[in-house]
Amino acid sequence: MSKYSGIFVQSRNLFRGRSKLQKIAQILIDQSHRQAWSTDAEKAKELNPGNPLDSGYSKLVASAEASGFGVRSHQSGTFTKESLSGVDVLVIPHASEDEWEKTLGEGSPKLTTDEISAVKDFVNSGGGLVVLGESEQPKYGNNFSELTEQFGIKIANATVQDSENNFKGVATWVLADLKKSFEFDLGFKVEQTAFYRSGVLEIKDGSDAQVIATSSMAATPSEAALVAATNFGKGRVVVLADSDIFGDDSIDELDNKNFWINIASWVAGGKAAALAQTKKDPSWAATDPSWLKLAEAIETIKPMQIKDGSIDSTVHDLAEANKQIALVLEAITELTPRFAHQADYLAQVKKDIQAWADGGFGVPDFYDSLELFRPDLKRENNVENLAVFAMYTQNGNPNRNLEAVITNTFWPDWLAEKEQVYQNSAFVPIEFVAFTSGYDTFSAVFFPETVATRELAKFYWGGIFCDREAARFRMVTRAAQQLLFLPLPPDAERVVNDQYLAQETYVLWDLIHDRTHSKGDLPFDPFMIKQRMPFWMYALEELRCDLSTFRETFVLDEQGERLGKYIRYAILFDRLFRFPITGPRVRNYDGLGGQIIFSYLHRHGGLKWTDNKLSFDWDKVNEQIVELCGEVESLYHDGIDRSRVAQWMASYEFVSDLVQPHPASTWAKGADALPVEGELKEMVNAVLDDEFPLNVFFDTLNRNLQDVILSTKGVTA
Question: For 224-250, what is each residue's pLDDT tens digit?
Answer without folding.
Answer: 999 999 999 999 999 999 999 999 999
